[in-house]
Amino acid sequence: MSEKLAKIIFWGGTLSSLALFLALTVDTHRQFDALTHADRLDEQVVAGKRAFEKYNCNDCHTILGFGGYFAPDLTRAYTRLGEDAIARRLQAPEVAFADSFRKMPQQNLSQQEIADIVAYLRWVSHIENHDWPPQDSTRRWKRSTQNLLASATLSPGAALVKQEDCLACHKLGDAGTAKGPRFEWIGAKRSAQWIATYLENPEKLAPGAAMPAYAHLSPEQRQLVGEFLVSLAASHGR
Amino acid sequence: MTHKSQSVAYPYFVVSLLLFGLQVLMGLWLATNYFATVPQAIVDAFPFSTARAFHTNLLVLWLLLGFMGATYYLVPEETNSELYSPKLALIQLGLLSVTGVVALVGFVFGWTQGRPLLEIPRPLDFLVVIGALMFLFNVGMTIIKAKRWTMTQGSLLAGLFFLAILYLFGIPFYRNLAVDWYYWWWVVHLWVEGAWELIAAAMTAYMLMKLTGVERRIVEKWLYVELGLFLFTGIAGTGHHYYWLGAPKYWLAVGGIFSALEPFPILLMVYDTWRDIKHRKEPMKPKLTWVYLVGGVILHFVGAGLFGFAHTLPQINYYTHGSQVTVSHGHLAFYGAYVLLNLTFYYFAIPRIKGFPGFEYDEKTGHTGFWLTALGVLGMSLAFAVAGVLQTYLERVQGQPYMLAAQPIRFWMFVAFVHGLVVLAGVFLTIKHLLTLRPAAQPATA
Ligand code: HEM
Ligand code: HEM
Ligand SMILES: [Fe+2]
Q: Nearest Cα to B314, choosing from B240, B377, B364, B238?
């Protein structure tokens, strides 16, 4: 190889890659607003981002998959957990994670900061990022839920969920509200037995949760609801 | 050593080695958090996040100080003149060290920018920029006054200049998270797969010229090709971090294709080293310097090239992104490419700065230090890799909640910790050996 050819490779390689990269950067900026729903990026969301940075949340939790890998990814925390569960974890991590083998620090956030972070995570959860992460993919939740709802008329647990109007606070597939955690996620995390006990008196297992007690249901009925939630997880992955 | 002012490199090496030791200690504490249950009271006072900021910032700081020290050693020899101002170089070291210490103490008290790897608060960023300007000014004036320009120092300087410019993109507050990460990678990716590769290629080429006696013309010709391929693949290859952050879909194609080519320039570096060794005019001495140089070139290829390629295609990255697979690659790549590069340079330069006869030194504990560290890091990276594959399968494919999937991973993080103890022992021996380097006992045939 001649010295001249070597220099051509250097300049040709560098400049062509740089030109492509800068051109795509300009185009990406043109598309960011639509892909991230920048119209919903209001001052409270920005305040939430500042609080998120102030407490260095990102060095334990990934968000969009970047950051520390020590704790769950937060890209879709809002769709997975809902407002109340997020707020409870920020308010009293020492209680929320009392049974966990891994703890989250109590950093004494103000009520305002908690509300801001919840708004921030709500905005983040809508970023269109080609359906990452797979474990929180709504497409996958929906497909599995659809299969399930097709047979829901046969399930007494599903009928109870409907009767008690649980979806006024929880999400299931496309339906429901993100105040409490998503049912598919609860089903993957807990046993039917745990859910049945929890329904009787949530305060005992999750102090401070904004979840009403369902003590008026019989133990058998509560067990049926638990089995229904666990069955949601089964159709999701395994 | 041909010029007196080259010796300002030495204090840079000393400070960087001490920071390296502290970095590894913090790594062990991080791994402990993974396999043990740290009580709430300790978590409240010194959470994982703070320790991680220590671990990664110490890494970056000591590597940069090493690069700067190496540059101060190299430039006078390449320009054939004394450094413009050795005193300014020492002031700069003081400034950067103080900034580093203030940053670390600040982290403990929650003074942070709160963005991974860029945690240093903005007022301190300002001091870092001043330090970088002092550095570029000092080196630039040396070259301008000497009016002697070589390709090797040119690429080293281009790398350092490029590095300083890119740092600026990490300073502003970005309102939009996607834009934030877009530019975060201009610092992180374009550093390790752009600017720093220029530095690595230049430092390696320089040492090869000095150690083998192979002609500059040949080494520098291949250096052009290496750099061209590094930048061709590395710049557009940034796209392998843009798959899932809310950017358009074409990044899956651009990032995938360009980054999949990134191993080739690293392979070329392995080949160039091998060719220079074959055509060497000098004996391969001292042996330990060569163990470091060759070991570094090979592990650079394994950690960055092979482990990087393993998860760079979007079809795979969809499942491995942001998991312990990333950690595995991060460790082996940083160690293979940049830790070993700096340590090789220290073993190359210190005997020359201290004027040892024949530049030979008493190598014994140095070999033990090398092998303990290298095998320890390799074992640790493999343990992270097993943990990562488990996490990918349990959490991302099966859909288990994060903390459930984390249970079986605890064991592998313990395995990583045990290898980390070996790393600590090796690093301790290496630091001690370098800081107390002695001339070789009388050469047998002298
Ligand atoms: C005793 C030795 C070490 C142990 C046990 C260790 C352990 C760890 C742990 C547990 C993390 C946190 C991963 C997370 O975010 O969850 C980490 C991060 C990191 N460590 Fe180490 N480490 C050690 C030495 C090193 C060395 C020698 C290097 C440099 C070559 C290094 C470079 C890094 C980097 C770059 C990160 C950030 C990783 C990423 O963002 O993917 N560590 N380390
Ligand atoms: C010496 C060079 C390199 C170093 C020091 C290095 C280091 C790192 C580090 C520390 C990270 C994690 C960053 C974070 O999220 O905190 C990372 C991510 C990554 N690296 Fe490298 N890397 C190098 C070269 C390469 C090469 C050559 C490739 C591809 C062939 C590659 C592919 C990747 C990919 C795909 C990721 C993203 C992983 C994810 O999605 O989580 N790297 N690298
Ligand atoms: Fe990269």
A: B240
Residue nearest to atom 15 of ligand 1 (CA): A68
Q: Residues B215-243: pLDDT tens digits?
A: 999 999 999 999 999 999 999 999 999 99
Q: Domain range holding A2?
A: 1-35
Instruction: Please tell me the residue having the least CA distance from ligand 2 atom 24.
Output: B304
For ion ligand 3, residues whose CB falls within 5 Å: B 189, 193
pLDDT tens digits, B317-330: 999 999 999 999 99
Q: Are residues B276 and B239 in the same domain?
A: yes
Q: Which atom of ligand 1 is nearest to the CA of B28?
A: 5
| Cα B218–chain centre separation | 27
Distance CA B18, CA B25 (A): 11
A126 and A148 in a common domain: no
CB contacts under 8 A, A 36-95 vs B, are 36, 38, 41, 46, 49-50, 52-60, 62-73, 94
Which bound ligand lies closest to the C-alpha atom of B419?
1
Q: pTM value?
A: 0.94
| Contact partners, residue B444, CB within 8 Å, separation at least 6 | none
- Is any ligand 1 atom within 6 A of the Cβ of residue B31? yes
DSSP state of A167: G
> Is any atom of ligand 2 closer than 6 Å to the C-beta of B259?
yes
Q: Please give the average per-residue pLDDT across A45-74, as a whole number.
A: 98
- pLDDT score recorded for residue A175: 87
CB contact under 8 A, A129 and B244: yes
- pLDDT, mean of residues B388-393: 98
Domain housing B218: 150-282
Ligand 1 pocket test target in B30, B300, B338, B377 with most atoms within 8 Å of CB: B30
Q: How do residues A197-232 score in pLDDT, each as one tens digit?
A: 999 999 999 888 889 999 999 999 999 999 999 888
Mean pLDDT of the A159-185 span? 91
Q: Which amino acid is at B58?
A: L
Tokens matching residue A95: 């209680």
Kindly report the protein residue whose alpha carbon is nearest to atom 34 of ligand 2. B312
Cα→Cα distances A226→A157, A217, B14, B106, Å: 8, 12, 62, 47
Structural domain tally of chain B? 3
Whether residue B14 has its Cβ less than 6 Å from ligand 1: no
For residues B131 and B57, membership in a common domain is answered with yes
Where are any strands of DSSP class E within chain A? 62-63, 66-67, 171-172, 175-176
Ligand 2 pocket, B386 CB below 6 A? Answer: no
Shared domain for A31 and A48, answered yes or no, is: no
Helix (H/G/I), strand (E/B), else coil: A195: helix
Q: Whose CA is closest to A102, among B326, B420, B406, B409?
A: B406
For A78-128, write each residue's pLDDT tens digit. Answer: 999 999 999 999 999 999 999 999 999 999 999 999 999 999 999 999 999
pLDDT bucket at B119, cuts 50 / 70 / 90: very high
Give the tokens for residue A144: 């599995």
Q: Which residues, numbered 6 to 25 in chain A, qualify as contacts with chain B under a Cβ-Cβ cut-off of 8 Å?
A: 6-7, 9-14, 16-18, 20-21, 24-25
Q: The domain spanning residue A182 has which CATH number?
A: 1.10.760.10
Ligand 2 centroid, distance to B260 Cα (angstroms): 12
Domains of chain A: total: 3
> What is the rounded distance in angstroms from the CA atom of residue A33 to the CA atom of residue B178?
10
Q: Which of B180, B241, B244 to mutate to test the interface with A (most CBs of A within 10 A)?
A: B244
Measure B246 CA to nearest chain A CA, in Å: 4
B94 pLDDT band, cuts 50/70/90, is very high
| pLDDT tens string B37-54 | 999 999 999 999 999 999
